[in-house]
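Worked Example 4.2. Consider the chain below.
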Amino acid sequence: MLGEYPIEGRRAADISASVEAAVSAGGLRPGQLLPPMRELAQTLGVNPNTVAAAYRTLRERGVIETDGRRGSRVRSKPATTGREFIRVEVPAGVRDAAAGNPDTALLPPLGPAFAWAVAQGDREPVLYGHAPIEPELERLARADLDADGVAAGPVAVTSGSLDAIERVLAAHLRPGDTVAVEDPGWGSLLDLVPALGLRPVPVGLDDDGPLPEDVRRALAAGASALIVTDRAQNPTGAAVSATRARALRAVLREHPQTLLVEDDHGHRIVDLPLHPLAGVTRHWAFVRSVAKAYGPDLRFAVLTGDDVTLDRVRGRQRLGPGWVSRITQRAVLRLWADRAVDARAVAAAYGGRRDALIAALAGRGVEAYGRSGMNVWVPVPDETGAVAGLLHAGWAVAPGARFRVQAPPGIRITVSTLAAGEIAVLADAVAAAVRAVPGSGYV
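Applying the procedure from the previous section yields the following structure tokens:
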């Protein structure tokens, strides 16, 4: 059943670690059936309860799944082998349109802001027991949220969007609960959900965001939470429109106990208005990171939500990291105060590159999507063939497998650093790679 790989250990922790290591190293493959608990217990000479505890740990970590009498098997996309490993190595001389990074030329210099923040810290050192959030930053963040119509709620600071989302999910859900996620969706989030022992349920989307009927179906089937990207959805570029927001709020009103999590990571890099959903359900959270506009290495996001959710998140945060460095908070505050990012100019730069590529692809008979943000999603009949063909032509793109649960195949192209003269060349390469696939339907 397990080929040449033996599961080892006498304690539950050792057994689960042995399986996890094998999955990570490829010794146990996705979909591979594990031994029945009693059989493995007899082989290892341990109590069946020990193996049961190990399997329970593996389920909670998103490594395996159990289907009653059919037994336990390695998940098709186990959390141990994250989607970040589903990537294309970019050889020398190949243009990278896969990484998903912002254009560094559009990021502000951080030195002056941090120099100011450090000087402030020298004059007013932050010590144990001080407030975890910079008062002026809290005020400006809340004012910004109010201006965009986000429901009233307290403010917290986390180490990026994913940190915020993980803390919110952990504050309300337990292993085995179901979470409705966008499909295609953010690969890191699709890894995080099963890693927390939660079960992802895919929800389809179009240019205007999640499809209301898919959301209704997921919530009616028992999903405890829904995660929505408001703008610059990764990988499709979808943005929730006013009409779609009304429809989604109507669905959420039918399920007021749903935990709603909104991710607005596209703040200050898109020019489309925000249409938030927050406030319809009893528990909700809304998160904004500064990664795309100010730099991924800041590891900084603002979080708001209902009182209970924020109280739980901040309480658990106090028991872990305690707080996000007030030096970093002050640096971000300075960047905001100095208007270090011209949001309109950044949005125009990304929008111009994105729209130009979509138009060029359309002129070559290739369907593509990207309403906002820095990515373009291209449906393809064969991801492997398209990615390989483009790599041969000198272009690295991201395979859609990093972002899909049940959605059809596709590739993600990051346009953030594309020059005007490269658009037509890339469009030609994409069209050629798609047409090279037998039965693609493209002419």
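The chain has a mean pLDDT of 92. The first strand starts at residue 64 and ends at 66. Compare this with Example 4.1 before moving on.
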